[in-house]
# Entry
Amino acid sequence: MNKCVERLYNGIVKENPTLVLTLGMCPTLAVTTSAVNGAGMGLASTVVLALSNLIISLLRNVIPDRVRMPAYIVIVASFVTVVEFLMQGFVPSLYSSLGIYIPLIVVNCIILGRAESYASKNGPVASLFDGIGMGLGFTLAITVLGAFREILGAGTVFGYSFIPENNPTSFEPISIFVMAPGAFFVLAMLVAAMNRIKKKKGRPVIDMCRDDGCIGCGNLSCAGRKNVKEGKE
# Structure
């Protein structure tokens, strides 16, 4: 159970695919003109990620190495097709907004990357939670990105307007934020904020260049310090 929680934390915070690994930038920048679009794309990707990770993990000892990537693409494409039909049938407005980016989930480097680096080497339960964690991290990041762009560029978020009806001139939307440059601006700010948070939570950097050499170094995990204490070169 601890490993499952670790996979969730890893995907949402430690290795967030958007804010830390900077993967899947095409849908991240293209569909986040609103928070609804970001949430829709993120949840669709989460379903595909979780199910494809699970199936690939179950079949990891059956799929030959020389055809593993084509096999992964076939598995991912099958789930993307199912998700696409479900969205077209139940949320047609969101389906129309996302457009071509729904079928492009097939070649999303987040999904293929997790299939190759994790699902193909680990058990089904851990792979399932890895997919859920990565998907939730992606969903959270692009939903926040879309929300900031929508608030700044249109004065609305999730259907709620920030522009008072009795005084519409009190808030002037900055239209550039709902255009392509705005996506880069907001993404850069979110990545910088994530780096700042991780830096505060991390251990202080210890200066390795001391006059008394490795013996006086306070970094107990340093391999060079251990070798000096053990009399190795």
